[in-house]
Amino acid sequence: MRQKNRLNARRNKKAEREAAEQAKREAAEQAKREAAEKDKVSNQQDDMTKNAQAEKARREQEAAELKRKAEEEARRKLEEEARRVAEEARRMAEENKWTDNAEPTEDSSDYHVTTSQHARQAEDESDREVEGGRGRGRNAKAARPKKGNKHAESKADREEARAAVRGGKGGKRKGSSLQQGFQKPAQAVNRDVVIGETITVGELANKMAVKGSQVIKAMMKLGAMATINQVIDQETAQLVAEEMGHKVILRRENELEEAVMSDRDTGAAAEPRAPVVTIMGHVDHGKTSLLDYIRSTKVASGEAGGITQHIGAYHVETENGMITFLDTPGHAAFTSMRARGAQATDIVVLVVAADDGVMPQTIEAIQHAKAAQVPVVVAVNKIDKPEADPDRVKNELSQYGILPEEWGGESQFVHVSAKAGTGIDELLDAILLQAEVLELKAVRKGMASGAVIESFLDKGRGPVATVLVREGTLHKGDIVLCGFEYGRVRAMRNELGQEVLEAGPSIPVEILGLSGVPAAGDEVTVVRDEKKAREVALYRQGKFREVKLARQQKSKLENMFANMTEGEVHEVNIVLKADVQGSVEAISDSLLKLSTDEVKVKIIGSGVGGITETDATLAAASNAILVGFNVRADASARKVIEAESLDLRYYSVIYNLIDEVKAAMSGMLSPELKQQIIGLAEVRDVFKSPKFGAIAGCMVTEGVVKRHNPIRVLRDNVVIYEGELESLRRFKDDVNEVRNGMECGIGVKNYNDVRTGDVIEVFEIIEIQRTIA
């Protein structure tokens, strides 16, 4: 029993120990679990703290970035505002620079070292650069304008600051020495240069704001020589301006004139019009008497000395139609008037006295008619006189190219007597027949246009112009543009002094109301707007001087070659005067023999005696050269020569005259192109090259083979290919030429059929200046 109790006691102790151990183990595990849970919570708290700190740092970084961007935007806006203010200041200074120069003040603090406009601008630019450098040296807080700071936005304050920077510590620098200069702009100023159709070198230099010498140097680099006052064309001026780095704006000078002329109602349908006839001939051959008989009035009795004083224009009604006559004076003092009459007419009636024959002024009239390309009707006058010889007149006129129809020519010959009235009807029929051949037509309805026949200043009526209407109908009250003048037609009178309200084609009238006296030959045009007509007239007056200067280069003998290259001159026109008839004939024959198919000599007019105003007028109308052989020009001719800038040349040796004209014509001939063989190479062997194809191994037998010259390939002395070389080598080196007796390798471009025994011929093209034998 006792043993059983011991066993039970042992069992109980053992169970107690096991329970105690179990309790300890559970307590240890509980403590472990609590420690793990505590560590977990601590770790979670640490992670949350770190995340919060990172989020806070990120938000702070984003805020700083936004702040930086805002500061940059504000700084950019400030810089743009500063640039805008500076540009506005420069613009206002440019607008006020003339006022500043015209009204300088003694107390002006904006002092410039120089008075040059462009130098002052450069100095202002330098001052702005200095101010900008100083402003950038200050801190950002001081440099940044605050809100409400009116000083930063005041333009007056900025101008005072610029003046203070210029003045420095001394304030005004009026009394300081002028030794300090200004910095040149770092970049050249490029300008917009407006160029008209013509401009002088000096004006171009002013528009580009450079010295005239710089423009002349630029033109010399382009191969053109010019002086400061020389007129140059638009194309040359454009090349010079673009060469100097400026932008060119081309302006057509006649834009306003074209706009005015385009705004005209010209009508549509053309109708037949009356012919305009000019009566020409030698003095006292009966021109005015002939016209007087036709008009059945006594005009000749009212003229001083029986000589017509002005170009008279009259229209007469005949049974077969109306004819307008221009009575050109026949006296030598009115030769320039005769030239105008010939250019304004449709038909020329050449009056030749049957008892006197062809006289000097008859020849002049023929020359003017031919120069104007006007058909001629010959009126053989004074046929009723016993000594009349019409056959003699025909023979003499045939020597000057006026052939009657019965001799195969184109001129009608009519025998008339202005005194007895014989043959007048036949003459009028001949004129109307010639007009039918010409098919003269004009638009009758619409705004009129015409030409001034004569003009003068009347004390009571003011400027008076005789106008020949060519197209349209001229009405009283129309606004007319007439050369350099303009005005409204206040009154119109016909040749009888009667007031008329309108004038159609081929009708001559006197008009009143112009602003001044126009020149004979000026175009008359009816326009709509009087203000625009005034602007065009004023522009033409200003343009006149430029045109006169540019015309000086037109007919110089030295410029003939330049004009020929431009296609303007195909023949040399010459007006020849000599001391004797033999010299005239010899020189004329010699000059005409110089003519070739490319360049021809044309004798526009010739005669014996000094050079007269008639000769000068003819030369001006035909763009001809005046040649005097042992003669000189009179005073009136010299005035025309100087006014028209004609080329006048005197000679006393006929060979010098011929040689100079020959030299000028030789310069017009295009050079002759000739091929000259410079080398021959014989093909000794042919090699194949993957790069060049067939390579010919050659020996140079004559001359020199050059790399860049054209070649021919000959086989049995027959040309089988013509081209150029692909390569030229001597041993392994590329060379430009190989001389006689040396070997070389030749590759022919685009040709691989070179064979042994072929000959490669090298040639060059040379220009040979042709001369007239």
Automatic annotation (TrEMBL):
Q: What segment(s) does the record annotate as region Disordered?
A: 1-187
- Kindly give the Pfam families that the UniProt entry links to this protein: EF-G_D2, GTP_EFTU, GTP_EFTU_D2, IF-2, IF2_N
Tr-type G domain location, by residue?
A: 272-441
Superkingdom is Bacteria
PROSITE patterns on file: G_TR_2 (PS51722), IF2 (PS01176)
Biased composition annotated in UniProt, kind: Basic and acidic residues = 15-100, 150-163
Q: Residue spans with biased composition (Basic residues)?
A: 1-14, 135-149
Q: List UniProt keywords, sorted A-Z.
A: Cytoplasm, GTP-binding, Initiation factor, Nucleotide-binding, Protein biosynthesis
Does the keyword Lipid metabolism belong to this entry? no
Molecular-function GO term, any one: GTPase activity
Region annotation (G-domain) maps to 275-423
Task: Cite the binding residues for GTP.
Answer: 281-288, 327-331, 381-384
For this protein, the record's NCBIfam families field holds: IF-2, small_GTP
Protein's job? One of the essential components for the initiation of protein synthesis. Protects formylmethionyl-tRNA from spontaneous hydrolysis and promotes its binding to the 30S ribosomal subunits. Also involved in the hydrolysis of GTP during the formation of the 70S ribosomal complex.
Family note: Belongs to the TRAFAC class translation factor GTPase superfamily. Classic translation factor GTPase family. IF-2 subfamily.
UniProt name for this protein: Translation initiation factor IF-2
